[in-house]
Design brief:
Layout lengths: L17 H14 L6 E6 L2 H8 L2 H7 L13 H13 L1 E6 L7 H17 L1
Length: 120
């Protein structure tokens, strides 16, 4: 959303995970921007928000995409793409409590359920 302009995008894949879709949603949203912007990303995904707010992604990169347990980071290619996009824009990640009757979070859930129904 920008001022009074709202654009909705959605999509899905048959063989995926919730975490993949959460990262992909942010990637696709940032890809819709035509020029560098200040962006607030609201998400109920602790996985996505914490990766940036708690600095996980910076540690992963420093450790050659290994977790603190020395395991390979899951969804590395998506994290790399998302990180690249955060370098083009000034992005602030804001955690939203899921299923707490937030108008926009409810709309995102509705769009996601619609995409799941299309894939059945």
């Amino acid at each position: 959303m920008y001022k009074d302009i709202k654009k909705e995008i959605s999509g899905g894949e048959k063989q995926t995970t919730n975490n993949i879709m959460e990262i992909t949603a942010v990637i696709q949203g940032l890809k819709t921007l035509n020029r560098p912007c200040n962006v607030e990303v609201y998400s109920d995904s602790a996985y996505v928000v914490n990766a940036f707010d708690k600095g996980w992604i910076y540690s992963w990169m420093k450790n050659n995409w290994k977790t603190s347990n020395k395991e390979p980071v899951k969804n590395k290619e998506l994290w790399q793409e998302l990180y690249s996009l955060t370098q083009k824009h000034k992005v602030e990640f804001i955690k939203v409590k899921g299923h707490s009757d937030n108008e926009f979070n409810n709309r995102c859930d509705e769009l996601a359920r619609g995409e799941i129904d299309k894939l059945r």
